[in-house]
Design goal:
The complex is a heterodimer of chains A (about 200) and B (about 170).
Chain A: H1 42-52, H2 57-60, H3 62-67, E1 74-75, H4 88-95, H5 106-116, E2 121-131, E3 135-136, E4 142-150, E5 155-157, E6 160-172, E7 178-190, H6 193-200
Antiparallel strand pairs in A: 1-3, 2-7, 4-6, 5-6, 6-7
Chain B: H1 5-9, E1 19-20, H2 27-38, H3 44-50, E2 53-54, H4 59-63, H5 78-88, E3 93-103, E4 107-108, E5 114-122, E6 127-129, E7 132-144, E8 150-161
Antiparallel strand pairs in B: 1-5, 2-4, 3-8, 5-7, 6-7, 7-8
Classes of the chains: A alpha+beta (about 200), B alpha+beta (about 170).
Amino acid sequence: MANRFGVLPFNSPVEPTMDYSKVAPLIGIQSVRHPPHDRVTEVDVDRWCQVMRDTNPLYTDEDYAKKSRYGGLLAPSGMMHVFALGTMRAALDQFVRGAWEHPNDPNVKLNVVIEQEGYTGVMATAQRQQHFRRIRVGDEIHWTIGISRLSDYDHLTRQGVGRKYQILYQFYNQKDELLCNQSFDVLVYRAPMSTRRLYAG
Amino acid sequence: MALDITDLKALVGRESALVAARHPVNIPDIRHWSEVIREDDRSYREFEKLTKHAPPAMLMVWTMPPLWSPETPAQSEPHERAIRLLEGAGYATGLVVALEQKFLRPLKVGERLSYRVKLLGVSQGEVDTGVGRGYQLDLHYTFLNEAGEIVSEQLCRRVQVSRVAAQTKH
């Protein structure tokens, strides 16, 4: 019987590990395509360039960009995710009110199972972007999200026993051209007892 | 360097050149603002279709200096020189203590704003403030569109103090 901190006595039966069959159907499936939060605009690109101190005229000098082989202003490829972020209200709904904007997305369903299985700690560990086409000012970037892989066994990590999974974002422009694949690695873990005690006060 | 009050007073009544906003009044910024201030969740397409005006209080969004620019600003306008004179005399901390804003009309999408600043007055001598002794400057801002129509006037009261002396409760 666990005490009030969730700590089991030493002679307890072995804790069950995650039931992989609950999550297996969610792996390798991309969500439906979600619309962007904003169109790619000159103003947002210019502000990004100010913050990043990026003076590339392809991003901010319309005359220069028009004469280039791109024929118009571009956005830095690193801005890709800027346009796929949720709205302020969606963020408040998710983090304050516990309601997800896209509850049918595979990553949201996966998170529900993972929490039920006791992996309550979350840590982002890596992000990679692979760009295929340039973002142009005026583009509307649609995106999908999916889980490309999930460990089928527990890892012993410094955060506790955990699983790793990889999220795959895919970004498309309004012509359905794939602009970028972005992977995002996450570790979910069962926090060790000492950490749980700390949070339990 | 000791402060020569006559140098400071000579700048009173003088006005800066026009400073142009970096961006025109635009829909993406209006959408960002509406989202944060009003939890307005409408899509950018609706804003693009329906928005003709910006909330007047967004004026400073477009006229504040850029976050970073490859060129270093000259800082040679009368109000900037007044502040530099005070800083040079040891009144190195500037605090804005009051701002009166008069908005004459909503801003139209596409308008390109600019502003000028007049040094309206300087305190007769050192004044006592809650954070130390210093000088008080009154700055008058005039905001215009590209046709020269005044859209807003603002009075900004600023103090320059030698050091911030925070009162402790002990």
